[in-house]
From TrEMBL:
Residues 3-181 form the N-acetyltransferase domain. Pfam families: Acetyltransf_1. It comes from Streptomyces indicus. One of its GO terms (cellular component) is ribosome. This is Ribosomal protein S18 acetylase RimI.
Length: 181
């Protein structure tokens, strides 16, 4: 099957919403995402419209999607720019300007076909084009071994940074980084 990997367009907010809701129903969602299906499904259309518009252009965030030949959206990731000296979502000061990859998802029927690599290649290419970006990073749950292996295969390495989960501090999220070539 052929796939197109590209940035979202502002008018595609309904597809952005549908793919996110699908991702949040995946069996791995509780360890892959910090949001629940129940919370996301309650969001108004204006939230999804703003999300699509905000990640379709500009230099602060970009969402990339994998679209199957039949037009079905089957995967996505978002790259969010984090400027050196600013605080990240945990309140820690960022030492370098980089992008944070979030919302990584590939539909189970399309896994193992190189879509993660394609999505990350597109997100990294965009990231490296943003002035000052030196690194990409992401967080992955300690029990999400499949994702860890996929990210390592792409070139991400564990940085040593860990974040305990608020709901269960005995569980950790590992930070993985990829430096600009």
């Amino acid at each position: 099957m052929q796939y197109e990997i590209r940035p979202v367009r502002a008018e595609e907010w309904q597809q952005v919403k549908e793919l996110r809701l699908l991702a949040l129903q995946d069996p791995a969602a509780p360890i892959a995402f910090l949001e629940t299906y129940e919370a996301a499904v309650q969001r108004p259309d204006s939230f999804w419209q703003e999300r699509a518009a905000g990640s379709s252009h500009g230099t602060q965030a970009r969402q990339f999607v994998a679209v199957a030949a039949d037009g079905t959206w089957v995967g996505a990731t978002v790259a969010i720019v984090e400027r050196a000296g600013s605080k990240d979502f945990l309140g820690a000061e960022l030492p370098v300007t980089g992008t944070h990859f979030v919302g990584v998802y590939v539909h189970p029927d399309h896994r193992g076909r190189g879509l993660i690599q394609g999505l990350f290649a597109a997100a990294a290419e965009w990231s490296w084009s943003v002035e000052g970006v030196e690194r990409a990073r992401l967080f992955v749950h300690q029990d999400n071994h499949r994702a860890q292996a996929a990210y390592k295969k792409i070139g991400f390495e564990r940085s040593g940074g860990v974040v305990p989960l608020e709901a269960d501090p005995s569980k950790l999220e590992y930070e993985m980084v990829l430096d600009k070539p």
